[in-house]
Amino acid sequence: MDTPRPAGPDAQTPQPARWGAVAGIVGFLAIVELTSGILQGFYTPLMTDIARHLGIHDADVNWFEAAQLMVSALAVPLLASLGDIFGHKKMLLISAIVTAAASWAVVFSGSFTTFLIAWALQGFYAVWLPLEIAIVFSRARKLGVPGPMTRRAAGLLVGALEVGVIAGALAGGALIGVFDGNLALTMSIPAIATTGCIVAVAFGVPDDGDRNGAKIDSGGFGYLAVGLLLLTSGLSFLRINGPASVLVWGSMALGLAVLYLFYRHENKQKDPLIDFSVLFARSMWPVQLTAGLFGVSVLGAQIPMSTFARTDPAVNGYGLGLSASGVSVIIGAYVMALLLGALLFPVAARWAGTKRTLIAASFLVGIGYLLFLVQHGSLTVVLLNMVIAGIGSGALVAALPAAAAAAAPFHRTGMATGLTNAVKTIGGSFASAIFGLALIGQVAGAVSDGAAENFAAPLAGYMVVWAICGGTAIICALILFAVPRDALEDARS
């Protein structure tokens, strides 16, 4: 696994002469990522409006994110592995159809339960980027230059994603006012975008032709689904019943036991859903563990940032008191930093190497969030913190699937790239549930006597969120030192 792949006959061919062979594909895939960005950015400035519309506490919107991330965690490894078996384009198209249907369901959902289900099913979009990287890597491998082409494509695709996030965040904050607070009409915009995405995939993305001939590991998927559901149920019981409840620790213990059975089951399979021999390779496990810990901040911290910025400091003693359009400014600055980080990744990797770039990016994320612990009282310092974290996050979003593709055997490219998003979403789902607990005050211990009438979360809860995000990012940087030297570099670059 750690042995460099032999260079093909075209190893010395300059990359620029080859880029035209994949540029058209990357263009259509960029449309898909633009749509993904719209989905990720559009709703963020609307979260307070959604909470008020449904009559729920600010902290309760974290359960929307937790449910979506859990669906993503289940769907990504399954669809990514099916992509290796039946074709990456086919799975990309299926996931686009499911996401579009869920986006329209969000528009017409009028209750907490129906909104939660529809929102969760939107999580199928999480498999888009891994499948896209697998498609590009497959085409680039046939040209003899998978490493540099894949890194360049990853940077451009993530760049398109972040442009979509910026456009979505700005549009979401603005259109809710243009449409006089009509939430359903406002949320129809991302539904239209996802419908157009289906057309782009169906007619613009060719089949890469790669198949590994494996069989579907339905038993492994069953173990994984039950194990993750038990673990997240334990987190839900923790919030509802408190840490003294037997349901909390019983559910978590059962979840871990089922996941152990999943591990045992996978090791006996000829065609496992998750190939642990690939996962535990010295060049792979630090990348995947980093992806999981990175999910804590990049997926779990978005909604807390939105609700913090909307909190009125005159009433609660903290927050920025911004409107939905004001939150869009913060989101826009953060995503611009993500865009910059994604575009800088291939340049930095060519100059310093992929491993050093990953380490530096992780440190930037950690510094950005830890700065919130000492400065968060003005829009200026919040923007500064978010930009620092954003540059590192953008580089990691682009780098992780590309690094996984470089470390994996060719017949497991889809699984490896999909696994980065799967473990990232698992990390984000746990973080989202824990952050919801922190923001409602049970972890922070900061719920006041009047909290029943106060929808705002306690400041101590936000401090917990920032400390966890910063701490996990620093741990990522330290873990990445374990990657063998030059293990993530392509011999043909």
From TrEMBL:
InterPro entries linked: MFS (IPR011701), MFS_dom (IPR020846), MFS_trans_sf (IPR036259)
Keyword annotations of the record: Membrane, Transmembrane, Transmembrane helix
UniProt domain Major facilitator superfamily (MFS) profile: residue ranges: 25-488
Transmembrane segments: 21-43, 63-80, 92-110, 116-137, 157-179, 185-206, 218-240, 246-263, 284-303, 323-345, 357-374, 386-410, 422-447, 459-483
Highest taxon above the source species: Bacteria
Main localization, broad class: membrane
Bilayer disposition of the protein: Multi-pass membrane protein
Subcellular location field: Cell membrane
Pfam families the UniProt entry points to: MFS_1 (PF07690)
Keyword field contains Methyltransferase: no
GO terms under cellular component: plasma membrane
UniProt GO molecular function: transmembrane transporter activity
The keyword Translocase is assigned to this record: no
Protein's recorded name: Major facilitator superfamily transporter
